[in-house]
């Protein structure tokens, strides 16, 4: 999602492009090296709508958490690919959807014009797709009778880690939705995504024949 180089940090910065950082990897942009936005001095950055806000603004907190989530899912995808899991294609699609999530977050509704909204809107369709995937994997899993700990092999543990990062991203986005700055479907997507990652972590452990560690109250 970001290209490191001299004078630039890795990670997403909302560029002056209608699809945000997603366009760095799509036909609507030229080579990424030509599209890198220049760093702003004195701790400020810009949204897609042109607003200058402090880098500690909750919009950039949400963008950063979303970028971390995509990176975590990428790592989980690599572990899962090594084990031959077919769900890696779903993980790749989710990473692409997170680019669209970032575009929506980088376009505050309070200052967005109609042209912005047409290019960065986020529909409910991806949410419904996640729910279908959740149901599909859940049907194949044994009942959950106790608390499980992040474990079950590298694929499963990495997916659990992604789930935890997803919950944090959701916590960053919810205040934006409540303030009328982001589309409610973005928060819904992250909420369902954390459930998907939990179910998928269990599924990966099952397919690999790995044991899921359970919570046992420590003796004091």
Explained architecture:
The protein is an all-alpha fold. The chain has seven helices and two strands, in the order H-E-E-H-H-H-H-H-H. The chain has helices at residues 32-35, 58-82, 88-105, 114-120, 125-138, 154-178, 184-208, and strands at 44-46, 52-54. Strand 1 and strand 2 form a beta hairpin. Helix 2 packs antiparallel against helix 3 (88-105) and helix 2 (58-82) packs antiparallel against helix 6 (154-178). Mean pLDDT is 82; it is low at 1-31. Belongs to the Cob(I)alamin adenosyltransferase family. GO terms for molecular function: ATP binding; corrinoid adenosyltransferase activity. It catalyses: cob(I)alamin-[corrinoid adenosyltransferase] + ATP = apo-[corrinoid adenosyltransferase] + adenosylcob(III)alamin + triphosphate.
Lay out the secondary structure:
Layout: H1 32-35, E1 44-46, E2 52-54, H2 58-82, H3 88-105, H4 114-120, H5 125-138, H6 154-178, H7 184-208
Antiparallel strand pairs: 1-2
Q: Given the structure, what is the number of helices? A: 7
Structural class: mainly alpha
Number of strand elements: 2
What's the rounded overall pLDDT mean? 82
> What share of residues is helical?
40-55%
- Poorly predicted parts: 1-31
Strand share of the residues?
under 5%
Largest sheet entry: 2 strands, antiparallel
- Radius of gyration from CA coordinates: 19 Å
Q: What pattern of helices and strands is seen along the backbone? A: HEEHHHHHH
- Strand order across the biggest sheet? 1-2
- Intertermini distance: 46 Å
> Overall 3D geometry?
elongated
């Amino acid at each position: 999602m970001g290209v490191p180089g001299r004078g630039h940090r890795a990670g997403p910065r909302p560029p002056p492009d209608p699809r945000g950082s997603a366009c760095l990897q799509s036909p609507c942009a030229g080579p990424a090296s030509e599209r890198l936005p220049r760093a702003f001095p004195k701790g400020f950055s810009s949204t897609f709508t042109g607003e200058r806000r402090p880098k500690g603004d909750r919009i950039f907190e949400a963008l950063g958490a979303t970028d971390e989530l995509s990176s975590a899912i990428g790592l989980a995808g690599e572990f899962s690919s090594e084990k031959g899991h077919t769900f890696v294609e779903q993980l790749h699609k989710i990473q692409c959807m997170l680019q669209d999530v970032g575009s929506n977050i980088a376009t505050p509704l309070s200052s967005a014009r109609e042209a912005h909204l047409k290019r960065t809107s986020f529909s409910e369709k991806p949410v419904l797709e996640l729910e279908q995937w959740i149901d599909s994997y859940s049907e194949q899993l044994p009942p959950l009778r106790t608390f499980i700990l992040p474990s079950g092999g590298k694929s499963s543990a990495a997916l659990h880690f992604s789930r935890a990062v997803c919950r944090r991203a959701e916590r960053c986005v919810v205040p934006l939705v409540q303030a009328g700055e982001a589309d409610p479907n973005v928060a819904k997507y992250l909420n369902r995504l954390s459930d998907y990652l939990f179910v998928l972590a269990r599924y990966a452990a099952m397919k690999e024949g790995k044991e899921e560690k359970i919570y046992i109250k420590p003796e004091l």
